[in-house]
Write a structure and sequence with these properties.
There is one protein chain. The chain has one domain (5-319): TIM Barrel, CATH 3.20.20.70. Helices cover 41% and strands 11% of the residues. The protein is built from 13 helices and eight strands. The longest helix has 19 residues, at 17-35. The chain is globular, with a radius of gyration of 18 Å. It starts with a helix and ends in a 16-residue tail after the last helix. Bound molecules: 5'-deoxyadenosine (5AD). 5'-deoxyadenosine binds next to loops. 5'-deoxyadenosine binds at residues 57-58, 148, 150, 189, 218, 220-221, 223, 260, 295-296.
């Protein structure tokens, strides 16, 4: 859809509730046209909170004083087994940039999962790696890769990350993943420190141009022990408007109702679905490690955020007229 920059700016800043309602309705209509009234579920497995990076916003950054853990391959396979029984057909292996997860180890894991569950997709979210590494993981059978760009503005990127991290390298990784045939996920936080309406417009421009198959956005939430711990959280309202605008700019996008939204608002996920989102990612990690993957404060890992409550989540989705099919839920469009 052809939304002009000035229309987008108006939608992001208006205090007219009728305009916002119309935006949400249009986003739902566009999603329903492409995917139907269906929400795809992904089982999120947080494989490690060790991280070599020191992102200023993140609660598991290198300098954070948090208890570290790492799941064993057996534990990860157990999560998949439980998840498959619960009806998950996508497994997301997410973690900090942990050197233990060498190409060899990740390839072995991916092959193991694809062998045991050939009907399921494997998504990796393990940060920045080099081209050859992404190529090996893809060769082993990984289908998708999530790597948020965090901000499309180079100066803003520099204020959220230490000097040793590079905006250009992040963007190069996204292009490499695309070239290797992954379904690629980008995304950003809403209300991160130093974000402005202009930097948000650059994020939307980037999404409209690059057309990532998946876009993860959620409000920034301060994390204890980080340089940004005193900063205010991002706005739920603004996040919902951005979800709707992203749906209109890129109708085929797979758009999750993120945990961060659910954390800030009790019905955050339902509201995200009503703004055009069509993916939920309940937590499949072992119960005792969930609290340790503390990328921000009070992160939800129980209730309907938890994979074992899919029945409950399915009811909540049915209550807003959405089905939750047992399927991979691939991107519907030309990559
Ligand atoms: N608040 C919200 N989201 C965060 N992330 C990291 N730290 C925070 C935070 N404090 C997001 C980043 C990262 C993803 C895994 O989680 O966008 O890419």
């Amino acid at each position: 859809m052809n939304l002009s920059s000035s229309e987008i700016r108006r939608l992001l800043t208006t205090s007219d509730p009728t305009a916002v309602d119309a935006l949400m309705e249009e986003a739902e209509r566009v999603r329903d046209e492409v995917y139907g009234r269906r929400v795809f579920m992904r089982g999120l497995i947080e494989v490690s909170n060790h991280c070599r990076n020191n992102c200023l916003y993140c609660g598991i950054r290198r300098d954070a004083d948090c208890r570290r853990y790492r799941l064993s391959p057996e534990q990860i396979m157990d999560c998949c087994r439980v998840g498959h029984e619960l009806g998950f057909r996508t497994f997301v292996l997410q973690g900090g940039e942990d050197a233990w997860f060498t190409d060899e180890r990740v390839c072995q894991l991916v092959r193991g999962i694809k062998e045991a569950y050939p009907d399921s997709a494997v998504t990796l979210s393990l940060g920045e790696r080099d081209y050859d590494s992404y190529a090996r993981l893809r060769e082993a059978g990984a289908d998708r890769y999530l790597l948020r760009h965090e901000t499309a503005n180079r100066v803003h990127y520099g204020r959220l990350h230490p000097a040793e991290m590079s905006f250009d390298h992040r963007m190069q990784c996204l292009r490499d993943l695309r070239r290797l045939g992954y379904q690629v996920g980008a995304g950003f936080m809403v209300g991160s420190p130093y974000q402005t309406l202009d930097t948000l417009m650059e994020d939307l421009r980037f999404i409209a141009d690059f057309r990532p198959e998946m876009v993860g956005i959620g409000p920034f939430i301060p994390a204890a022990g980080t340089p940004f711990e005193q900063e205010p959280a991002g706005s739920v309202e603004l996040t919902l408007r951005l979800l709707a605008i992203i749906r209109l700019l890129h109708p085929q996008v797979l758009l999750p109702a993120t945990t961060a939204l659910g954390t800030l608002h009790p019905t955050g996920r339902e509201r995200a679905i009503a703004a055009g989102a069509n993916v939920v990612m309940p937590n499949l990690s072992p119960q005792d490690t969930r609290a340790l993957y503390s990328i921000y404060n009070n992160k939800l890992a129980t209730g309907s955020e938890a994979a074992e409550s899919v029945a409950d989540l399915r009811l909540r989705m049915q209550a807003i007229g959405m089905e939750m099919p047992v399927e991979r839920g691939d991107f519907k469009g030309k990559s």
